[in-house]
């Protein structure tokens, strides 16, 4: 999420439901290969093989369920069916488009990966 957040920075995150998300908010999602377990605590599920992908990813919400699909700015969704972002899905973008692996490449992110909304960096008022 450069330049907004740097790798290793600590963030204050508030757990929220996907229904409360708005465009422009910065969210933390479980990384590829990781999903929050049923108890809501981040980590790997018992019996899962370790995965070398990031445990958490930080992205900015570009569209929530019910919003128009942003086909012009998200190439991976140009051929997505329908006209609206489906329930259970989000469109998220990194602030550094040249280096970010986000919905522009991967398409929708599912809301079951949502850990929370970033409030601020640790140490900031």
UniProtKB/TrEMBL annotation:
It is found in: Cell membrane. Residues 31-53, 67-107 are annotated as: Disordered. Residues 82-118 form the Peptidase S26 domain. GO terms for cellular component: plasma membrane. This is S26 family signal peptidase. Residues 96-105 have a biased composition (Basic and acidic residues). Transmembrane segments: none annotated. Its main location: membrane. InterPro entries: LexA/Signal_pep-like_sf (IPR036286), Pept_S26A_signal_pept_1 (IPR000223), Peptidase_S26 (IPR019533). It holds the Pfam family Peptidase_S26. It is a single-pass type II membrane protein. Coiled coil: none annotated. One of its GO terms (molecular function) is serine-type endopeptidase activity. GO terms for biological process: signal peptide processing.
């Amino acid at each position: 999420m450069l330049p907004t957040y740097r790798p290793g920075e600590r963030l204050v995150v508030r757990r929220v439901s996907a229904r409360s998300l708005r465009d422009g908010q910065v969210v933390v999602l479980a990384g590829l290969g990781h999903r929050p377990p049923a108890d809501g605590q981040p980590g790997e599920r018992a019996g899962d093989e370790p995965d070398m992908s990031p445990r958490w990813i930080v992205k900015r919400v570009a569209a929530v369920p019910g919003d128009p699909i942003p086909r012009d700015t998200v190439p991976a969704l140009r051929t997505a069916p329908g006209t609206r972002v489906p329930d259970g899905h989000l469109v998220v973008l990194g602030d550094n488009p040249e280096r970010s692996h986000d919905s522009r490449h991967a398409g929708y992110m599912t809301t079951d990966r949502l850990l929370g909304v970033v409030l601020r960096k640790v140490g900031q008022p």
